[in-house]
Amino acid sequence: MSYARQMLDTYSRTFNVDAGVLAAAIDALSDCVEACNADNAADLGEPNVTEMVTCIRLCLDCADICAATAGVTSRQTDYDAAVTRPLLEACVAICKSCGDECERHAHMPHCRVCAEVCRRCEQACQELLDATK
Fold it and tell me: Among candidates 53, 55, 57, 65, which has minimal Cα distance to 110?
């Protein structure tokens, strides 16, 4: 069981979404932050770093957006859909863009892993969005 799910299970209020879907999104967001930061560092170590500029920028953007979204979705007091929904939508968009770019460099293992994590995060955020409709 993930730490996100363990924390959600300790919460005394009821959720307006399935706790499993919420925990999966929080976990995917956290994993995406880690993967994008690691991929960014690896990209900077590549011999032809100028070819990696777009990947580096998208990984930075993805890590920042996913970190903010993980923080907001982890707080389950006074849920505000007007704030959470746009963040999740931004995550879906940036994870798609970052995943697409990382797939272009999938011959590098760090980019392949990052693309996979971005795809999983994109899907988890979309599932949470769908669950909140």
Answer: 55
Yes or no: domain 3-131 corresponds to CATH 1.20.1270.360:
yes
Question: pLDDT 10s per residue in the chain (133 long)?
Answer: 676 655 665 566 666 777 788 889 999 999 999 999 999 999 999 999 999 999 999 999 999 999 999 999 888 666 678 888 999 999 999 999 999 999 999 999 999 999 999 999 999 999 999 988 7
d(CA 14, CA 65) in angstroms, rounded, equals 26
> In angstroms, rounded to a whole number, what is the distance separating the alpha carbons of residues 30 and 65?
11
